[in-house]
Structure formats: C-alpha cells, structure tokens
Amino acid sequence: MSPARHAVFGHPVVHSLSPRIHGAFGAQTGIAVAYEAIDAGPATFADALAAFAAAGGTGANVTLPLKELAFDLAATRSERAERAGAVNTLVRRGETWHGDNTDGAGLVRDLTDRRGLDLRGRRTLLIGAGGAARGVAPALLDAGIPDLFVVNRTPARTDALADALGEPGRVHPRHFEQLGELGEFELIINATSAGRGGTFPALPRSLVGMRTVAVDLSYGEASVPFLAWARAHDVRDVIDGLGMLVEQAAESFELWHGVRPETAAVFEALQARNASLVTA
Ligand code: NDP
User: Fold this and answer.
1) Which residues bind shikimate (predicted)?
2) What's the whole-model pTM score?
C-alpha cells in the first residue's frame, strides 16, 4: 500500500524539521510516511493546498505565515482551533479540510511533561500575537495560568487575541511601553518571529524574578536573541521551541494515523543536532 501523503506548507519552509520528525515517527511506529515541505506564501497557499489534495494529499501542517489563512480555508474546525483562530494541522475529510491546532498542546506537554514545570500559579507574559501566540494562549489558560499579559508590535493584534480568548479577568493586553510597570513574571514566552531577523524588542530587567522561566517558541539561530537576553538578565531556566515542535508534531501524527509516537528519542536527536549548529 502506498503511504499516506502529508506535507508542511509555509514560507520559508526549506529548513523545516517536520519532514525529519515525521519520518522518525513513521520508522518508530512502522507506519509508512511520505512527508514533504511545500513552499507557499499567502498568495499561493490556497492553490497549492488544492493541488496537493488533488494529488492525494490527506494531511498537512501549516506554519508561518499561513496559520490564520488555514483557519479560513478549513471547512470544519476543532474547538481548540476555533479558540485559537489559527490552524496548524489539516486533516482531509471527504472533499474538504478539517482544521485543528496542536501548538498549544505541544507547548504545554513540553513544559509540563518534559521540563516538569507546574504552570498553575505562573504569572505569564506572552510576547507576540501571531499564529503561534494564538495557538498557545488557550492551552496556557487551560493549564492553569492565572494571568496572561500579552504584548505585540501591532497593538490591534494584541486586542484581537485578547477578545478571541474571551477571559477579560485573566487576559491583559498591554503595550510595550507599559512593560516597565508590570512587575515580575514567572513565565516569559517569546512567540514572535523577530529572532529570524536576528533581533528582539528591548525588554526591561524588571520583568525577571527569581522564579522566571524564559521560553522561545523559535529554535536554532532564531531563538538566540531572546534567550541571550534572558541569560544576560540572570534567568536560570531558558527553553527553546524544539521540544514544542516535536510534541505538536506527535499530536498531528496521532490525528492523521491514530497512533501516538514516543517523542523522547526524536527530541534528543534533534537537540544534539541543533546544539552543533547553533553558536550562541
Ligand atoms: P506570524 O507571522 O503569524 O506572527 C509573527 C509574530 O512576530 C507577530 O506577533 C509579529 O508582530 C511578531 N514580529 C515579527 N517581527 C517582529 C519584530 N521585528 N519585532 C517585534 N515583533 C515582531 O508567525 P507565527 O506566530 O506562526 O510564528 C512565530 C514564531 O514562532 C516563529 O519563529 C515560528 O518558527 C515559531 N513557532 C514555533 C513552533 C514550535 O513548534 N516550536 C510552532 C509555531 C511557531 P506583528 O503582529 O506586529 O507583525
């Protein structure tokens, strides 16, 4: 039997680790996997996805900058995708796509199961309001974050995210200029793509306390600017997005194949590879 055809869409996507991760999951579970990376931007995504379906594609991951567009293209959506307003996983159902979002479950699983963090009671600052931020915010609230402060370069997107989450007592949209007034956070999450350009918005030292954990959803070189800022400000626990990447992929794999793969060995192999590539 020929393998189910899956792909990751995004731009740029050439360096995506998803084909490698899904290949490893397939080898581990004995499921034949054909998983490719397809470069598509907002102008070409709808046509590329239609061509993929016509060629037998039955599952797709969607990455930057297409998650909100994928939400619009999905005919049906899971509850967590609805709450996120963003889709990172598409499952072919008959003639249409079903949209889901595994980013939040992936982040929470990495932080709790792999790193042993108890998220309950952790006052949290989320930087960014794009597709990734939208994916992780509902899962963080479900995991027991008492207060979620959100800042973004474009304030209208901060407000839109806060409105979509619909918990005004727990979700607090703010501006970058207000960060100096907010006190310490136990969890600071960078969900921007700024690091891809080698930069990061300036943050005040007053955000950091004894218990602060800094998490960048990016990995590799893109996580260097924020994690370097955190280390320079005495944050002891810094975590990049590699663990989340593997966990959200496992969640997608289960949606497509009905089997949950083990993630530890895949994560460790990628981490070792990453450490040799990143010169931070
Ligand atoms: P989007 O394009 O949807 O959003 C990008 C976000 O970054 C927006 O909030 C944008 O702000 C902000 N941003 C971009 N450049 C700058 C800058 N120079 N200064 C300040 N803010 C900036 O991307 P995603 O949300 O999909 O992805 C964000 C990052 O998260 C990426 O690096 C991606 O690789 C990573 N990610 C990792 C995952 C994992 O599994 N580890 C999963 C998903 C994403 P504005 O609204 O103003 O444009």
Assistant:
1) 16-18, 63, 88, 103, 219, 248
2) 0.96
